């Protein structure tokens, strides 16, 4: 995919999905974003996605060269007082980086929705770590700063930061402030005996995990997953497609069989004190034995009506299913509703539309903050992972693991706020 920025074009890459949301992103870019960038004297390279998967492939194929160009450009023209960037892989000779980490910031403006952001994140990480020689390490660790212009349907990441219009997002970008954007690794049980050192022993046998992708928004099972799945086929309805799909799935409400296990540290929402309470018996510390680490701290046996594992508090303006979720913390927020009837789930979702009242009010709502969660379904099941779908095999071999990543070589992302 030919286009990539050259050093004189830095510091900004703009990637635009013309198919997102109301399909007006190109228009908004031309009328609002482009003039503002020109006025702010911000040079940029523009990339328009041509199809689903384009953004991911683009970054997978090009991010290495993009970073090399950026490092060379910074080395040739260092900002006054800036730390010199050190080398990337073998291509760039290490420069005299003697104090502090290299300050290499790759800025990417994403014009579209959460699906496009998901592709950018996964493409960047595949490009950096996909080949045998990952070139990001303690000596070279760039920041990847995302500025999201919310022109998708839900825009969960931007909405969770209180940004609901392109102009507000543009103002945040121009303001230059950013916070960490933490991602969740999604892995599936690897039944072939070899590879990763990432082990867990949830059923008392040695188990390895095959990383599948990273998510930054929401993973779900049950009603929410079915709603997103059916809404894909209703794209022609525009933004009301989620409501139409949700109503259909509530009318024909199903309960979804699964077993959910939370490992390690857990906080649970306590409806009496109205706060999150840490279960100290689950806290992992120096005295925790490997056996204790491998036992689940919480097990939910279902059946589930609604199950959501989220890094964002809001999925669209006003809809706040996981009100304590924080883009920048290292927790994964879990909303679990087991075996609820139609009236109960309507009440719960109605209150989630009132800025997250459901957590305070409904006995059927369980709310946790966790680090590692595993899901297993007794029959073939479907998970929604940032708007994509993962069909999982029945039983232990289809088990899926969600883990907020602590590896600094993965946690490269920042968000303009
Ligand atoms: N040029 C294109 N043509 C068709 N689909 C595209 C194109 N570029 C990207 N896509 C796909 O469009 C899908 C929807 O994009 P995106 O998520 O950005 O918008 P959305 O679904 O409207 O918003 P949100 O995810 O915030 O609800 C993504 O799966 C993305 O891969």
Automatic annotation (TrEMBL):
SUPFAM superfamilies: NAD kinase/diacylglycerol kinase-like. Keywords: ATP-binding, Kinase, Nucleotide-binding, Transferase. Residues 7-190 form the DAGKc domain. It comes from the Eukaryota. This is DAGKc domain-containing protein. The lineage of its organism: Eukaryota, Fungi, Fungi incertae sedis, Mucoromycota, Mortierellomycotina.
């Amino acid at each position: 995919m030919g286009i990539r920025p050259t050093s004189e074009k830095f510091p900004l890459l703009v990637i635009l999905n013309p198919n997102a949301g109301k399909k007006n992103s190109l228009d908004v870019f031309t009328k609002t974003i482009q003039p503002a960038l020109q006025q702010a004297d911000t040079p940029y390279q523009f990339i328009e996605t041509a199809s689903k998967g384009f953004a991911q492939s683009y970054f997978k194929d090009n991010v290495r060269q993009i970073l090399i160009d950026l490092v060379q450009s910074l080395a040739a023209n260092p900002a006054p007082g800036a730390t010199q960037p050190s080398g990337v892989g073998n291509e760039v000779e290490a420069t005299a980086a003697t104090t502090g980490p290299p300050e290499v910031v790759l800025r990417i403006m994403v014009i579209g929705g959460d699906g496009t952001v998901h592709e950018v994140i996964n493409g960047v990480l595949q490009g950096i770590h996909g080949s045998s020689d990952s070139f990001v390490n303690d000596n070279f660790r760039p920041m990847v700063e995302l500025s999201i212009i919310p022109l998708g349907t839900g825009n969960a990441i931007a909405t969770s930061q209180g940004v609901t219009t392109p102009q507000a997002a543009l103002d945040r970008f121009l303001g230059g402030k950013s916070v960490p954007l933490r991602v969740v690794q999604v892995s599936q049980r690897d039944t072939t005996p070899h590879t990763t050192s990432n082990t867990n022993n949830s059923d008392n046998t040695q188990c390895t995990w095959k990383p599948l992708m990273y998510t930054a928004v929401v993973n779900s099972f049950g009603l929410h997953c079915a709603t997103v799945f059916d809404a894909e086929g209703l794209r022609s309805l525009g933004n009301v497609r989620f409501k139409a799909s949700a109503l259909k799935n509530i009318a024909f409400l199903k309960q979804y069989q699964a077993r959910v296990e939370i490992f390690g540290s857990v906080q649970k929402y306590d409806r009496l004190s109205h706060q999150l309470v840490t279960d100290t018996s689950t806290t992992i510390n120096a005295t925790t034995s490997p056996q204790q680490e491998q036992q689940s701290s919480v097990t939910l046996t279902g059946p589930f009506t609604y199950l959501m594992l989220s890094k964002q508090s809001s999925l669209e303006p006003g809809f706040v299913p996981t009100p304590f979720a924080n883009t920048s913390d290292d927790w994964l927020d879990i909303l679990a509703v087991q075996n609820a009837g139609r009236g109960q789930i309507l009440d719960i979702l109605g209150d989630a539309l009132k800025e997250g009242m459901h957590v305070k009010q409904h006995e059927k709502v369980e709310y946790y903050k966790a680090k590692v969660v595993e899901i297993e379904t007794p029959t073939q099941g479907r998970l929604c992972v940032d708007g994509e779908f993962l069909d999982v095999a029945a039983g232990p071999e289809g088990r899926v693991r969600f883990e907020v990543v602590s590896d600094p070589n993965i946690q490269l992302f920042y968000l303009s706020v």
